C-alpha cells in the first residue's frame, strides 16, 4: 500500500537537529515559523537574524539565508538588511534577555520607526543559555542563579511587560502575546505568526509575536511541570492577547 | 578633466562615498563630523539611496552589519566616542567578513574629551578596539583631496578583501575647506558581485549563512587562521606611504594625516635653515609600512615621530626600526594641534642633544 504523508517537516526547516533541551518551546516555535514561511511561499526571499541565547543556532535550523547578531542587536541588523533589500522578508528571533535587557534600545526604536520586519520574541522569564540567571522578565519571587533569594521589587524592580510597552508605539502594525502550551494555543500562535508576517508583507510596519515559553532545564522542572508552572504563573503576569492589529482578518 | 570645487572635508568624504557607489548610510550625529551625516541625509535621496539616522552608534554599526551582509555598499561616519560604541559591531563585522566603510573624524579624548582635532584613536583603529584577533584596513588622508581618493579606495578594498575599512581622519580635515576634484560616478552595475556569499534570499540555491560564530574551538581557530591568511595578503599588497625630501635627509620626521601635513611645512622651514630634514608618512596605518620605514630610516642621525596624541603610532615606528635607531617623540594632546615652528624647535633640541 502506498504511504500517504499527512505530517512532515516543513521545507523551510533544515536537516540540522535542534540543540534544545527536552520540553523546551523553542523547537515548537521554530516549526510554526517554518510552516508559515512555507505557506506564504517566501522561503527564497526570507532573511533571518538569530540572537545570542539558546537560539543562537536558529540561523542553521532554518533553510533560509541567515546570520547571528550580537547580543540584543538583531533589530538593528534586520533594519540594515531590510533597508538594503526592501522587497525581502526579514525576521528576528530573540529571547527575553536578548530583547528586553541588552537590546531594549534596538527593539524600541525598530518598532517605533515602523521598521518592516517581524520579531518572534521568546519570553521564558530567564536566561537559558548562560545557565539560568535573572531576566528582566523574571517573575517576582522567582529564584534564579542571580536572584537566589527570589526576585524582589526593592532589589530588582518589576518584571518588564514588553508587549505592553511596545503597543504604545505608533510604528507597530501587529503585536500579540501567545503561548504554545496546548494544541489549541499552538494553532493560535501560528495564526499570530502568520499575521505578523502578513503585516510585513503588506508593508504595514513593525510586527512582533511574544511567545510565553518554558525553560525546564533552568526552571528545574520536568517538561510537564513547566507547562503547569507557565499556565499558573506566567500567564497571570503576562496575559495572552492581541495588543495591536492593523492587519485585519486573514483570508 | 573635472573641475575643482571648494568643499568642506566632511562633505567631500560623503560625496566621494556616493560616487563610489555607496547608497546606504546609517549614522548618529557627533561633532566634528556631523556635516557628513547631514550631507548624506540631504544627498542620498537624490541618488535613490537610503539614509537612516540610528538611535545610537551601537545600532548604526549593526545596521551596517545587516546591510553589508546583503552585499550592498554601505558606510557610516562618527567621531571618537561614537567609534568606541561601534567597537562591538566592528568585531562582529570583521569576524563575519563583511565589506563596509567607517570614517572616524577623531577628536580629543579620552571620555567625552572635546571637539578639537586629535589622533588619539590610532590604537583603537589599528590594534582593534573590539575583542578578538581581527584587523581593519586603516587609511589616513592628509588633505581633503586625498580624503576623497581614499574613501573611494576604502570601498574597493572593503569589497576586494571582504573586510571593514576605516578612514582615520581628524577634526581638522573634517572641518577645513579645500579645492577638490571628484572622480566620476561609479556605474552601479560595475560594482563587485557578492551574490556568491551575500544574504539576498536563497531562491534557486542553498541558503547562505553569515556569522562570526562557531562553538567548536577547532573550527573557530580555522576561521581565525582564514582571517590571518587574508591579513597577510593585505600586508603584502596594500601598504601605502609617501615621502618628502627623503633622499638626502639626515634627520627623519614621521607622521600621518593632518600632522604629516604640518610636518611638510617643518621640512621646508628646516631646509631653509640648511637642516637636511625629510618626512616619512604612512598612508595605510594598517598594514603599517614597516619595511619601507626601516629602509628609509637607515643611516639617519635623528628620527622624530610627531603625533596629535601622547604617542601611539610611535610603537609601530619603533617596531619598524627595531632598536637600530633611537626614536624620539613629540606630541600634543587634548585637541591641541602643534605648529610647525614648535615642532622645528623640538627637532633642533633633539639634534643638538644627539650631536
Ligand atoms: C555582550 C554580551 N553579553 C553577554 C553575553 C552572554 N549571554 C549569552 S546568552 C545570554 C542570555 C540569553 O538569554 P535569553 O535571551 O533569554 O535567551 P534564552 O537562552 O533563554 O533562549 C547572555 C547573557 C553575550 N554573549 N554577549
Ligand atoms: S536552557 Fe532553557 S531555553 Fe535553553 S534550550 Fe534548554 S530549556 Fe530551552
TrEMBL record, chain A:
Residue spans crossing the bilayer: none
Keywords: Oxidoreductase
Superkingdom field: Bacteria
Record-annotated Thiamine pyrophosphate enzyme TPP-binding domain positions: 55-211
Gene3D superfamilies on file: 3.40.50.970
GO biological process, one term: cellular respiration
A GO MF label: thiamine pyrophosphate binding
InterPro entries, alphabetized: 2-oxoacid:Fd_oxidoreductase, THDP-binding, TPP_enzyme_TPP-bd
The protein, known as: 2-oxoglutarate oxidoreductase
From TrEMBL, chain B:
Keywords: Oxidoreductase
One Pfam family cited in the UniProt record for this chain: POR_N
Enzyme class, first EC level, given as a word: oxidoreductase
InterPro entries, sorted: 2-oxoacid_oxidoreductase (IPR052368), PFOR_II (IPR033412), Pyrv_Fd/Flavodoxin_OxRdtase_N (IPR002880), THDP-binding (IPR029061), Transketo_C/PFOR_II (IPR009014)
Domain of life according to the entry: Bacteria
Domain named Pyruvate flavodoxin/ferredoxin oxidoreductase pyrimidine binding: residues: 15-191
EC number per UniProt: 1.2.7.7
Domain Pyruvate:ferredoxin oxidoreductase core span(s) in chain numbering: 249-343
GO molecular function: 3-methyl-2-oxobutanoate dehydrogenase (ferredoxin) activity
Annotated protein name in UniProt: 2-ketoisovalerate ferredoxin oxidoreductase
Source organism: Kosmotoga arenicorallina S304
